[in-house]
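Colleagues,

Please find the record for the two-part complex below.
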Amino acid sequence: MKKLYVTGIGPGGMDDCTMRADRALAESETVVGYTAYLDLVRGRFPDKEYISTPMGGELARVRKALVSAASGRTTCLICSGDAGVYGMAGPALFMADKYPDVSVEVIPGVTAATGAAAVLGAPLMNDFCVISLSDDLTPWEVIEKRLRAAAAGDFVIALYNPRSRRRPRTLACAVKILKDAGVPEETPCGLAGRIGREGAWSRLTTLEELADDEQIDMFTTVVIGNSRTRVKDGRLITARGYGGEEDGG
Amino acid sequence: MKKLYVTGIGPGGMDDCTMRADRALAESETVVGYTAYLDLVRGRFPDKEYISTPMGGELARVRKALVSAASGRTTCLICSGDAGVYGMAGPALFMADKYPDVSVEVIPGVTAATGAAAVLGAPLMNDFCVISLSDDLTPWEVIEKRLRAAAAGDFVIALYNPRSRRRPRTLACAVKILKDAGVPEETPCGLAGRIGREGAWSRLTTLEELADDEQIDMFTTVVIGNSRTRVKDGRLITARGYGGEEDGG
């Protein structure tokens, strides 16, 4: 059976790549992905065929990977983070029936939410949700509904794609929705950008000041605490519920 | 500076462990964790000191790891999945101020939600939330509120700790709450148990039939689709929003 692996290499460089994903890359003859991520892999595996496609061309990228695998070359389609979280796994599986002799295997990776959480402390110690603020593929009304629901459920929230040049106001809109839904202005929040890469940065802020942070871009992960999130010694931590001093109580 | 690493080794065996976590284990003299997870690490690193603590003794485990690190032995505190998702990272950071010469570093891992998603297909391609049904540490009313909010937001839902011997009814209660909140009975769902280990299993079901599945236990991850989740060729896939046939449209 011809093989297509679909995997995320983690939020940063190859360090947060799993051993299973690394083995899939080692086994593959061809690696397909967005240019910036291919460069991270090339350092470790210089002797592969690399097929690079520009940002935004997701479906074309998936098709190229399936065509490569169908030609008999074991192929690995990569993205950052986890391929199953806003990634290439869905389109690859939806499109796979046109390539019946290709077996598609999805390999899980570290998604940006948990990568950012580790950099910031331990904000995802309790129930949380992950919401993308990009309205390229999801209508803004649906995003609004989800933000209100997240506030109603007192979830910790990890925001992906919080802001871009084309959408400079999305984060400010999201903050307003959360405040209107009753999330206190002083709620501790954390930002992590370029996790695990050159120029990595992170800082703590509050819901009140979040939208004013000018460094936030589409590669930043924003974590908004819930009612049990605290800042301790510069780390953002959500109490798990053990109670007592040892759990931030 | 004395060092304590806190890391998850992924949902399964060492295969889904990241290279960064693997390096932290290699560097450590002492590894602390729940017995079953230590056994997974021991195969790869036989010559460490292993400090094993029983299930449920989370705070004692964290204290032992901090004491070990404070004694000058580089120590790695491990759990399954990601240490920052219902894991040891929070207590370790909350308790670290009693051990001021220990530097605590959290290393992210693959959490069960994304591990299960990869086994099942690609159900987390759009906004999702992660909810634990264990009311050991979270009051059941809070869990209920979050389930209702998740339904209102049309989130894909990953449930952790769906059922245990002490809580045989929690999953059935959760399903009822979701149905009462308007989630259709025919909503596709997926189950994944013992991911990446001996005896791994997974299957698709529907919200209607979910609670009748007798194999579900506290180590099972349950994924409940949203309005855009489909079953195709035996895989659970949520449309990303590209539209058209290539996205399940």
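The longest strand of chain B covers residues 2-8.

Comments are welcome before we finalize the supplementary table.
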